[in-house]
Amino acid sequence: MKLDCKHVWEHISEYIDKTVDAKLRAEIELHLEHCEICSAILDSTRNILVLTADDRTFELPVGYSERLHERLAKELESSGKDSEEE
Amino acid sequence: MDCARRKSEAGGAQKLDMRTADTNEAALIPRILAGEKELFHELIRPYERMVYLTLLSIVKNEADAEDGAQEAIINAYRHLISFRGEAKFSTWLTTIAINEGRKRLRKAKGAAEDSIEEKTEAHEGDYTPAPLTDWREIPLEALERKELREALRLAVAELPDIYRQVFTLRDMEELNIEETSQALGINTGAVKVRLHRARMMLQKRLVPYLKTTVPARRRFFGRAL
Asked: Is B9 touching A (CB cutoff 8 A)?
């Protein structure tokens, strides 16, 4: 079966995640061989995922880890006291 | 993991930490429960980022997300005894973070509003990607542009809630479909649909930033990945 562009778009996400079955995967790849538009959509979507997974894109607030462990230390300390009191 | 999701060096190191944690946490948890509570710092360290991003995806406010992340992690400590190891520790912790985020959202929106937990995909929308008709190639340098990162942060923040949450768990935190489904309490089919729609909405939104006039080697980030 020859896929049209719209059909390919519907499966782009699963194609990227490698969850399409072998037959559909082969059909998509055949389509991509000659379709610049779908290739560009695929590549641009992948680039977004590369960027998303890059820790520099979604940074933690400065000092987040220090504040977290400070608060946690207080919690651990007080939980210890509770058990001692018991 | 799809190799398209490559991390920066720092991110890679954190992933390594998480894998190490995967193997160590089974040993750490009984020790913490037996009284070596200081080890909880070590147990939680690989997941700090994940908890914060989960909260941020729900409450959409950095200060609230940080406070919520602290609460979630303290809750995890207090309830560690209830962790049975049936799910991965990361999934269990993500569920606690989601609950904390939803609790904060309910509080913020008032008790009268009770429909924030789950919306469905009932509304139809346009989830087709944007064709890049004058697309040439996307050089690596383009991905290094600060403005592109900012555009992506903004675009993710503006996704509808149900899509942003799935996208955060899958593509930022790299939970798999099953883990995402468990953490959010939705079925795997819904995870796939929401993820696809989120990605397509982001693609459409970011196309202007991804276009380039610089010709480069064809399919730089193409299927070779």
From this structure: no
Q: Are residue B37 and residue B140 in the same domain, yes or no?
A: no
Degrees to nearest 5, angle at CA B94 with B92 and B95: 65
Domain of residue A13 covers 5-85
- CB contacts under 8 A, A 3-22 vs B, are 6, 9-10, 12-14, 16-19
Q: Quote the pTM value.
A: 0.79
Q: How many Cα atoms within 13 Å fall on the side-chain side of residue B210?
A: 28
Distance, in Å, from the CA atom of B83 to the CA atom of B17, rounded to the nearest integer, reads: 21
A45, B223: Cβ pair inside 8 Å? Answer: no
Pairwise CB contact (< 8 Å): B221 & A47: yes
Where chain B has pLDDT below 50, the residues are 1-12, 112-117, 212-225
CB contact under 8 A, B8 and A56: yes
> Is B103 in the same domain as B133?
no
Query: Half-sphere exposure (CA, 13 Å, Cβ side) for B10?
Result: 8
**Cβ-Cβ contacts under 8 Å, A17 against chain B:** 2, 177
What total number of domains does chain B contain?
A: 2
The beta-carbon neighbor of A16 closest among B2, B41, B202 is B2
pLDDT tens digits, one per residue of B91-119: 999 999 999 999 999 888 775 444 444 55
ipTM of this complex prediction, to 2 decimal places: 0.87
B219 vs A39, A73, A76: nearest CB: A39
Q: Which residue has the tokens 């991965």?
A: B88
Residues B70, B75, B78, CA angle at the centre, nearest 5°? 130
